[in-house]
Design brief:
4-stranded antiparallel β-sheet; disordered N terminus; alpha+beta; binds flavin-adenine dinucleotide
């Protein structure tokens, strides 16, 4: 049976919901594509989660260790990438009470990783040329790069959108829940998110970093964000961290008292990190990028919240490397979704 190669740092769920299921849509091999025939290593520390409440003994999800994050950039002092309060207190010789004994983590970033893809400029050309030439081989499609570039640009300019739908990209995204609320509005994407009913949620919370602009000025629809003062940053850092600590403590207290996870999670705020798989095609992604990346030189500038823009920027970088001609045509035509 074909299996997905080991993916570091995540629940390794290949094609569909069932890990270990056959890999179907693999078009080209490459560093970011699934490799057919890759032997599966023996599974370490496997566990069997309930999936949508149905215990399925055939489903095995592998959990791997969290990858360490890169250090903060120059000048980024607060908040630190990760703060383990219980460990810090113990190291300082301070006794740790039951209340404090959870490993809370504060972050200011988002994670986006391309997990698998079947997406290239050739997919667009293939689909478009069936209109005029019928079936083409990959060699025919790649024979004249200038013509290919011109055709993609024409499709983008004249908003012939459907040829851009013959591609697929799956991303792993880890971000605060308030970002997911916005991302899930994009109905042409497919999502699967970690469950707060079937597993205990980790205490990982979002605290805006020092570079995050904090103050909104101007009228709704026509406002700008400007830097906060050091005092405002200090207030935001301290107030969010304290609020997160309190709510996670209440969550644990209810779990310890035997309350179901699905009830106890009601106290957790939208700054809690969640993780999900997001699958989309290039056309859907362009619609997302046109709305969720702020580019004042675009034909229809949008003014998204910075945190979803951070996700969108990372998705765009991965997509641009897979489909450079399509990405260039998107840029050249005012970032309008065709
Ligand atoms: C800056 C910004 C501010 C926002 N503020 C708010 C807010 O205050 N409140 C709020 O509720 N939302 C808000 N949104 C969300 C917004 O209204 C959209 O839900 C979101 O941007 C998804 O856009 P979409 O419908 O184009 O995307 P998708 O759902 O991915 O749809 C893609 C395209 O498919 C077509 N389509 C999809 N479904 C249908 C359908 N049912 N009927 C017809 N065509 C369809 C449309 O052409 C659509 O553009 C905001 C979004 C942005 C970018």
């Amino acid at each position: 049976m074909l299996r997905v190669p080991p993916q570091p740092d995540r629940l390794a769920v290949p094609d569909g919901h069932h890990p270990g299921a056959p890999v179907r849509a693999v078009q080209r091999a490459g560093p970011q594509h699934l490799q057919l025939g890759h032997p599966s290593p023996p599974l370490p520390a496997a566990f069997v989660p309930p999936v949508w409440g149905i215990p399925d003994r055939s489903v095995t999800v592998r959990r791997t260790l969290r990858r360490p994050r890169p250090p903060a950039g120059p000048g980024l002092s607060a908040p630190p990438a990760r703060v383990s309060e219980a460990v810090e207190k113990q190291q300082e010789g301070v006794s740790v009470s039951a209340d404090d004994a959870f490993d809370i983590e504060f972050r200011s970033d988002v994670e986006v990783e391309l997990i698998k893809s079947a997406a290239s400029d050739a997919d667009v050309l293939w689909a478009a040329r069936v209109s005029t030439k019928g079936e083409s081989s990959l060699a025919e499609i790649e024979a004249d790069p200038e013509r290919s570039k011109g055709l993609i640009n024409y499709l983008m300019r004249d908003r012939h959108g459907t040829p851009f739908e013959h591609s697929s990209m799956t991303f792993y995204v880890k971000a605060p829940i308030f970002v997911f609320r916005e991302q899930m509005r994009h109905r042409t994407f497919s999502f699967n998110e970690e469950s707060g009913r079937y597993r205990k949620l980790d205490p990982v919370f979002y605290v805006p970093g020092p570079e995050r602009k904090l103050v909104q000025e101007g009228k709704p629809g026509k406002y700008v964000f400007v830097d906060g003062t050091p005092e405002q940053h200090k207030l935001v850092t301290e107030a969010t961290q304290e609020s997160y600590r309190q709510s996670y403590r209440a969550y644990l207290e209810m779990l310890d008292a035997g309350v179901a996870r699905e009830v106890a999670r009601a106290v957790l705020p939208v700054g809690l990190y969640s993780s999900m798989y997001v699958t989309c095609n290039a056309r859907a992604l362009m619609n997302f990028l046109s709305l969720r990346v702020k580019r004042e030189d675009s034909t229809f500038p949008s003014f998204p919240q910075r945190e979803i823009e951070m996700v969108a920027e990372k998705m765009e970088a991965a997509w641009a490397s897979l489909m450079p001609l399509t990405h260039a045509a998107f840029e050249a035509n005012g970032r309008v979704c065709p």
